[in-house]
Amino acid sequence: MTMNEKAKKYWNEFWQGKEKPESVKTEQFGFDPDALAKLIIEGKKTATSSAHILYALEKEALPTVGAYRIILNSKETPVAIIKIVDVQVIPMNKVPKAHAIAEGEGDLSYTYWWNGHKEAFTKDLAEFDMAFSEDMLVVCEKFELVDAKTDK
After folding, report:
1. How many other CB atoms are there within 10 angstroms of residue 149's CB atom?
2. Do 47 and 103 meet the contact criterion of CB atoms below 8 Å apart?
3. Which CATH code for domain 5-12+23-148?
4. What are the extents of the domains in the chain?
């Protein structure tokens, strides 16, 4: 996602007077960016997962430890900055329960995580005429909240 002017302003103001990292990406999480951004700001969501194959299909680089992201709400307004602290590529059926809990969604169960991601990945892959597979590779990221905007 291309960084809009609001995100650029937020990023530059946050790093004013400090050594600023060279790059940052902007992102909306999932199908309900407002709810997921709220979970991040509240400290309930500290992880995310995405289908590995989509990075190649969408010509995107895999996330890296130490990278920053500006989280956008549904109106593409920046609401938080996160820093990636861990990245693992794991078959979907091997993703640990602790990761599902760290995603902070629903009832925090592995079943909720599995069903939600299976549905999302099935939909995403269908756009490329591909099918979901229980052992497909998943990019599991852990992150920490660096800053949250208070003037939403």
Report:
1. 19
2. yes
3. 3.10.400.10
4. 5-12+23-148
Q: pLDDT, tens digit, for every residue of 124-150?
A: 999 999 999 999 999 999 999 999 987
Report residue 23: phi and psi, to 5°.
-140, 155
Q: Are 36 and 29 in contact (CB under 8 A)?
A: yes
| Long-range contacts of 30-38, Cβ-Cβ distance < 8 Å, separation of 24 or more | 30/120, 31/120, 32/74, 33/72, 33/73, 33/74, 34/73, 34/74, 36/105, 37/71, 37/72, 37/73, 37/79, 37/80
For residue range 49-103, what is the model confidence (pLDDT) as tens digits? Answer: 999 999 999 999 999 999 999 999 999 999 999 999 999 999 999 999 999 999 9
Q: How far apart are CA 74 and CA 48, in angstroms?
A: 18
Q: Which two tokens stand for residue 83?
A: 């820093």
> Where are any strands of DSSP class E within the chain?
25-27, 47-51, 68-72, 78-91, 137-148
Measure the CA angle with vertex 102, ends 32 and 49; round to 5°: 60
